[in-house]
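Deliverable D4.2, example record:
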Amino acid sequence: MGTLCLTRLTLSHFRSYRRGVVEADGRPVAIHGPNGAGKTSLLEAVSLFSPGRGLRRAGAEDLIRRPEALGWKLTGVLRSLHNVHELETMAEPGTARTVRIDGKAASQAALGRVARILWLVPSMDRLWIEGAEGRRRFLDRMTLSFNPAHAEASLAYEKAMRERNRLLKDMVRDEHWYVALESQMAEAGARITAHRAEALSLIAAATSDTAFPAPDLAMSHAEGELPADELALKAALADGRRRDLAAGRTLIGPHRVDLEAQWAAKGIAAKDASTGEQKALLISLILANARALADDFGAPPILLLDEVAAHLDADRRAALYDEVCALKAQAWMTGTGPELFAELGERAQHLRITDTAGESQIEKDTP
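Output generated by the structure prediction step:
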């Protein structure tokens, strides 16, 4: 099994950090400090070495340290399988985020080919009881972790759908305007559905019932069964034009899919489970995703677990740390106090984050 880890992370004018440096050795990284000190921002920095907007889904402008407003920059040294890569991502005021890999300009999608990063943050605790959009985003993050090409298919689908929705809102009825767009949507949509199904299959094979309950996962569609075949999806889009015109938007397609989860052992839906059970199901999913990635990619992913231990009892907390260490994953974990990481001991590096006059500082700590 190979290794995937950051061995050095440098932050410049990022959020509350004027400058910060972390030297790491592949072990889990236990980060503690008071609320508001900058712990989550450190995890967010790591998350930006993957495609997308990071674990907070923030725009590039929102990441700039104030009041200087000079722009921000993150650099990392990534050990990925048998290679070492130098990563950079940055943005100046008023500009989009850019990426460089080994000194060369690259797309965000290219980050997904050298690194695999998964995260669990407190805002995801309500995943099973809120709207389908969050669960669909969670499904796509899992899918993207296995298949970086999923991002390109999603962008192609969304672009074609936006143009089709514009025609629908303008009440354009001439079918010739729709044919090319629906072909593009069907081709990209079939790829999206196939990618998602493959990801769920891989995760199901890696799921085990440990201290964290094994979930059964399935996809559902708001309008009934979603055609998975390209030709069938194209036909469904054409057949649905009249109804879509009345609604002013596209009502069938992978953008209407929901992720359903059930606690296998108890036979209850995740949305009906207790708050603690829902959290345990989420952790179980992240661990299954990580186990599947270790086999698929050849190394366990980098894990970002924000405040994950705060609502776990001592037994489950110890079980989580044992699973992370057994995976040999570099997990960056945050908590308000060092006692939350006592079970890790010297199996992890320990950092303390402090805040002085609005500036976050990173200090080494001892277990």
